[in-house]
């Protein structure tokens, strides 16, 4: 998992990279304090395996998560094989493959039939910051009741 922590990102992007440093982003949706984008020039190949879509989530303007959707069983199985080659065997928790580093968490969640999957790569420090901010906000809101 040291390799995953050392990379601290996905492809050529690095977690905590500011949204202003990205080119060709297209706003997709807002989720709480996070904004999700995709890129118009995104390569939808990982090796020889086809990706359906790649989304970039920014928390308070910093890259915090990359989400990749996959379709068709050969692509799902192929990407899983690449992940195992790169990072070793995954832990399996509730039908989800997980790789856990000190700074990065990666999950691959196939559909029930294995013909689709969602790959999520998270910055753990930003995920913890987001959770702490939400808890603080919830405490403030609860105190107003």
Mean pLDDT: 93
Based on secondary structure, the structural category is: alpha+beta
Rounded Rg: 16 Å
Give the percentage of residues in beta strands.
35-45%
Main sheet summary: 8 strands, antiparallel
Distance between the termini: 44 Å
Number of helices: 3
Which CATH architecture?
A: 3-Layer(aba) Sandwich
CATH class group: Alpha Beta
> How is the largest sheet built, in terms of strand order?
3-4-7-8-12-11-10-9
Q: How many domain units?
A: 1
The low-pLDDT segments are: none
What is the helix fraction of residues, given as a range?
25-40%
Overall spatial form: globular
What is CATH's topology name?
Protein Transport Mog1p, Chain A
Could you tell me the number of beta strands?
Answer: 12
Helices and strands, in order, run as HEEEEEEEEHEEEEH
- The oligomeric state of the chains shown is single chain
Can you tell me about this structure?
This protein is α+β, with helices and mostly antiparallel strands and 145 residues long. The chain has a single domain (2-143), classed as Protein Transport Mog1p, Chain A. It has three helices and twelve strands. An eight-stranded antiparallel β-sheet has the order 3-4-7-8-12-11-10-9. It has a two-stranded antiparallel sheet with strand order 1-2. The radius of gyration is 16 Å and the shape is globular. The chain starts with a helix and ends with a helix. The mean pLDDT is 93.
